[in-house]
Design a protein that fits this description.
The chain is mainly α. It has nine helices and two strands, in the order ααααβαβαααα. A two-stranded antiparallel ribbon has the order 1-2.
Amino acid sequence: ITRVINHLTTKLELGSPMISLYLLQNPDHYTSHIFVPFYWRTFLVGLSSTFDYTHRPSAHEHFNLYNWICQYHRIRKPNQKNWQEEQGDDEGDDEVVPALEGNKYAFNNCTFLAGHPLYDTHVPVRRSNSDNIIPNFLGGILPRPDKDDREYYCCTMLVLFSPWRSGKDLKSEHQSWHDAFISYEFPPQCKMYMSNMNLRYEALDARDDFRAQIK
């Protein structure tokens, strides 16, 4: 009988431990300690590029994150006395700005706000080819407006297309992300970007609908 039961158990789609987990709320494992998630790589980041946007110059107050990424980037300040010598010996990947006529620099009156970790050594400058720059989104796919968590989608779109320096600029304390999203008047260009971001999902849905029709 035991052999028959064991043989039948192997044919089940759900094992006994899983059934016990769902029906009796019994744990699926037993340990003497409790384990918590620890993403250790996040603690090794010396400087986040978020500072570049949240501490952008006052003249850039109206820029949303998407447009600012397209048009500006961070570079190191050159040494006004020895900039010609250091230009070839610069360490790291940061670009150095050449001096202009009269020892004036292109970043005059356009520096990061105080509080930026690189306030004394780096400045934001406009990209020479900013009209051809398109951000390449990394770190996961963007949320959908129709099927994903609505609050998460509204939060993501506000972060990308609404000017801010802290989360309090995006919504009030007692306001939901959906309400903040609805109440904010996005420029037509930003609405076009959001619509284009959803084209991939619309194409996938159309593909699935077509396959369902031909079955």
